Amino acid sequence: MSDGAHAVITNAFPRWDRKLLFKILNNIHDVVMVMDCDTTIVYANEAYAKILGVPVAKVLGRRLDEIEPKAAAINVLRTGMPYQIGGDYLESLGIDVVGSAFLLYEGNSIIGCVSIFKNITDVVELNRELQQTKGVADYLKEQLEQWEHLPLSFKEYVGQNSRVKETLILAAKVARTDSTVLILGESGVGKEVLARAVHNSSRRKEMPMIKVNCAAMPEELIESELFGYEDGAFTGAKKGGKLGKFELAHSGTIFLDEIGDMSLTMQAKLLRVLQEKEFERVGGCKTVKVDIRVIAATNRDLESMIEKGTFRLDLYYRLNIVPLILTPLRERKDDLLALAKTFLNQFSREVGHELILSSKVVSFFHEYDWPGNIRELQNVLEYASIVCGGSTIGMQHLPVRIIPTDADAANVECKDKPYAAKEILARMEKELILSALETYNNNRTKAMKALGFSRRVFYDKLLRYDIE
């Protein structure tokens, strides 16, 4: 140790034995460092080397303001602050420290500064990790609270899939406003269910939600259906005229389902209603003003249609204010069994006994892609509940059309009933009817003639097999 260091220390503690003093300092587990008025380091204890990994000999005689110019001890010395405690970051070593610094006096004159500190880098890093973990936990808690506090109307949506939850949380937020909503998703994902939930959670819930299926309306009728018509507007018009869907939805919500199937001519007329909230009835000249909330839905790729010129870009912008995207069932199979249970509970009440799925059916459901989504799952389970006859739904009770042709899955559970003619014939009959309808583009008259059924028998079978 240098004579300068001895001088500073012994001057500060003149009555103490020098060796005893240094022994005490070297047994302190924290770093003890002493510097003179020029910030030259005149003493450092053994903990300095242990904690900081720098030999004491390397720093003795060096100026701290050159090694660590932002050190708290330098601030104490230069400002004359008698004492300072707190955290500090040593850039030269890349570590965080916490400690204190205080002045050394000889009489009334400042002769140096003592700094005592410890390395808390691990603690700081742990704190950062804890803060990050807390941040994630707070976010998840917020998402959970949002989910738990969804309006009751949204509880109709079964499942815990994260993507579905995100859509429902956004839907709950937009439901409180009058913003136009565009629901996007494949056929059968539940677009109408979500539209109804948005309406029932809005300020318009006491007023009607009027549904318009744009795909089901003939082109020559859709304008009069939407906007209504005046007395004598066209041949066959109802005496006294008729209110259109937009007027019926006044103060409530209009749900435009399958908006992507609307013609360009009707798109232009619809755009005006959305922009101005007014229209004229067919055959009339009086402007009708309406206060409505618009929810539209489609299974079409509207952006692709815009590129092809079959959907108006300006209408797309008007509709696509808040898009709600519903995930297809094949991408949310974590909800599959919960959805199946909901439907089975419903059909159990109808058939009068409990219904459950066999393990093979459960496995098959998870492997199947469900092109018809939730609607297909519902129809499959309704069919199975009818033909099952017992409590357990097996592979032999499922519609033939969903069973892979390269597997004998339909016969897996038939060993105990190898000649279940009633169930087998029912499945075959339904498949024949569906095939005929598909062949004749859903023309029921042609389908029933091809099948050789009378009109009464044909429609009885449609009802029995729940064929729309």
Please name the defining characteristics of this protein:
5-stranded antiparallel sheet; alpha/beta; 3 domains; 5-stranded parallel sheet; Helicase, Ruva Protein, domain 3; 20 helices; 468 residues; 14 strands; Rossmann fold; 45% helix; Beta-Lactamase
Short précis:
The chain is α/β, with parallel strands linked by helices. The protein contains 20 helices and 14 strands.
Q: Report strand %.
A: 15-25%
Spatial strand arrangement across the major sheet: 2-1-5-4-3
CATH superfamily of the largest domain: P-loop containing nucleotide triphosphate hydrolases
CATH secondary-structure class of the largest domain: Alpha Beta
Walk me through this protein's architecture.
It is a single chain. The chain has 468 residues and is α/β, with parallel strands linked by helices. It folds into three domains: 121 residues, Beta-Lactamase (2-Layer Sandwich), CATH 3.30.450.20; 178 residues, Rossmann fold, CATH 3.40.50.300; 135 residues, Helicase, Ruva Protein, domain 3, CATH 1.10.8.60. 45% of the residues lie in helices and 16% in strands. The protein contains 20 helices and 14 strands. The strands form four sheets. It has a five-stranded antiparallel β-sheet, sandwiched between helices. β9 and β10 form a beta hairpin. α18 crosses α19. The relative contact order is 0.06.
